[in-house]
Amino acid sequence: MTGPARLPARDFGEIRLAEALERGLCPVCDARQEAVYAALRGLAREGATDRGLRAQMDDGLGFCQIHSVGLARMELLQTSSQLATAVLLDAVLRRRLKAMKKAARGDASGQARWLGEHADQRCPVCAGADEAARTTARRLLELSADAAWARSLGAAEICLADLYVVWAAAAGATKEVQARWSAIVAVQLERLEGLETMLAEYAHNSTADRRHLITDEQQRAAAASIRLFGGSPDRDRNR
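The structure assignment produced for this chain is given below.
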């Protein structure tokens, strides 16, 4: 089986990674976004009646800001309602409010300690996305044994945060994987050096008297730098 990017692919997961690389997306960003979409879709459909999830909420599970909004949007898209979202957020708020009232009765040091312990929202959507990123990193390292995948990964627009994720996975892998990834990193560094040069030229030409010297390549470099630091999520999935 061969994916759309003409990379050897044995299953649907590898086809998705090949697609992401061909379309100029960071493959880890793409996997993370797909995990978020699947989690929000499931929560919007069945989360309010899932006893296991409700029990986890009683133990402190919650939703981060981004995925609270994402859940509401997903349910609205699917059902034109936000009832399930309201039910889930009510369950979170009820427990949080009880704990906050208890903490507020303590002294300042106790409140600071409680806030430090409860700063993490324990968002299940975030947890799933992080696991998807780690799984994708491991899979990319396996695929890098193929020369075509290694070349594609060297040239890919992997965002900086996920470049670190895959690099960290490689550093903890076998010496063979470390050697393969070192070669890929070397190519990535050359790509980033070229990007930095273009950004410097773009900045140099950005003054009022030099703007006519800005090239299309410099404009593209500016956009690429945003993807480098901000990731390259696909458009919203409404399917």
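Interim note for the steering committee: The chain has one domain: 12-230. The two ends are 25 Å apart (CA to CA).
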